Prior knowledge:
The complex is a heterodimer. By secondary structure, chain A is mostly helical. Chain A has helices spanning 3-20, 26-50, 59-85. Chain A has 3 helices and no strands. The longest helix of chain A has 27 residues, at 59-85. Chain B has 2 domains: 1-507, no CATH class; 529-597, no CATH class. In chain B, 74% of the residues lie in helices and 3% in strands. In chain B, a hairpin with a 2-residue loop joins strand 1 (56-66) and strand 2 (69-77). Chains A and B meet through helix 1 of A and helix 24 of B. Chain A: This is NADH-ubiquinone oxidoreductase chain 4L.
Amino acid sequence: MPYIYINIILAFVISLIGTLIYRSHLISSLLCLEGMILSLFTLNALLSLNINFTLSTIVPLILLVFAACEAAVGLALLIIISNTYGLDYVQNLNLLQC
Amino acid sequence: TLTLTSLIILTLPITTTLLQNNKTNCFLYTTKTAVTYAFAISLIPTLLFVQSNQEAYISNWHWMTIYTLKLSLSFKLDFFSLTFMPIALFITWSIMEFSLWYMHSDPHINRFFKYLLLFLITMLILVSANNLLQLFMGWEGVGIMSFLLISWWHGRTDANTAALQAMLYNRIGDMGFIMMMAWFIIHLNSWEFQQIFLTNPKNTTLPLLGLLLASAGKSAQFGLHPWLPSAMEGPTPVSALLHSSTMVMAGVFTLIRFYPLMENNLTIQTLTLCLGAITTLFTAICALTQNDIKKIIALSTSSQLGLMMVTIGINQPHLAFIHMCTHAFFKAMLFLSSGSIIHNLNNEQDIRKMGGLYKTMPITSTAITIGSLALTGMPFLTGFYSKDPIIETANMSYINTWALLITLIAVSMTASYSTRIIFFALLGQPRYPSLTQINENNPYLVNPIKRLILGSIFMGFFISMNTIPHTTPQMTMPPHLKFMALAVTLLGFTVATELNNMTHNLMFKQPSRMHTFSTTLGYYPITTHRILPYLSLTMSQNLATTIMDSIWLEKMIPKNLTTMQKTAASLVSNQKGLMKLYFLSFLLSITLGLLIAL
């Protein structure tokens, strides 16, 4: 496998670990989520260019669209949590259950 | 001759209004003399009618023609209008002379006289109208003048609310009047009385219901009555003219005008009878415990109006008319003498603060005594010639026994509250501050009262001797029924005298429930004046704001969606929100899977 793919997949894996393991702030998880999407985007773009499969050059663009929606939803959740608790500490999330 | 004289009568007061010399002092005297001459001239057609019994109607100026309806200026001079016009003019003459004394210190007295004159003119238009349009013009005219005159001292909020009350209750009655006019023009194509009575339609319940509503509004029957006691906020001449002898008679007068239609419709007669009976009992109960002398007299007017309605209900419109004419005299006199008491006691209207006036104000106390005796139907004074036949005819006719009993109870209460006025205002020791100067020497005060005293004593005799009865009166009846009216009146007198003498020795405890019912006018104004506006305001608020903005735009989709989702999510899920635990377990299982696969 070419070296560059391994590099980008490694970047993806590191971002994934960063999403799943975080200390206190929820926003760091969202940030790593953005990193995952960035690495996926780069992987897709490089793959479709190197294999010369022109029909799949649209895939990174679609990925970008969905990434934008998802980032918006994530930020909305962050704002609701921030409105209720004042901070985005993860310890707060099981305090006041509705 | 009849035509010319009646037209001159109506134009004499009008020319005084049109001259508009308001700034001079002699405007008042010219107005008063104009009304005096109008009274003298109006006696001529009346005496001609008495001699010849010829009715006339004058139709001179053709106003307009709407397709098939011809509207013109027409005057009807029959028994009712020819008898009522001199009486109205006489009373207005006396009241204008009285208000020269009463309103002497008022800076706008010229405007007051102008308003009184306008009221008189519109009342005469109402009385002499031959078609419904002219009657309606007079009707609205007296309504407007009543509004302007009640709120004469318009700096006082109570006066303004009272005038508004008068206007609104009259308006409710006007709706009935307009319905009647609409029915007549649709079905009979005319607004003239002659055509209506000739065609004699068979299904007259709907327009007569409208007429009953209109009279109930104008004459303060039960349900539309609170404006009459509140209208005492106006000056006493206004109360004497409008609310005792003329304006509140307008409703009863119109009902009397339509007697050919009402003879044939028994439903309306029963309705009138019951409405009149309820009114007379209710207002008599309320008059028993009032403390303001003008309110007692106002409620007494209301009670007598109920009695007139009862008379119309037993199909005796002519008796009702005669009672109307005689009632005008003694009620106006009662109001004028109460005005004299009020002014002389330095604007004191509470009867608990008067007393001992029969020595210091002899003419006024004579007037009150004679007026009260005439009101209760003392034999051979004025009220006897009208009230006694009413009670006798009611006793002998096929009517509702309940209505009859109620009317008799109200007649005895009439005696009771009249005794109450005499006892508290005239007898006993003075309860007012002793520095007030009591002075009856002004001829403007004394002459009207003297004239009205003469009228109260003799007019009943004159009117009943000079008119030809249209229906045969009851000639024979058992003696206990014949004396019924006199007996209940005497009962009322004695009971009231006993109770009033007992009040010297009683300690005042908490007023009983019956007492508060009577003093607050039966809780009627308190409940309805708040509930009806509240209902319409909340309905309009609901329609305008709540339905469109609040429900449809805000709550229907957006807010409902959020609450639905939230309750569903919180019901269904049993997660505990331990995010880091979930993420770590995810990572662990992924790494284990990768390690095992590789």
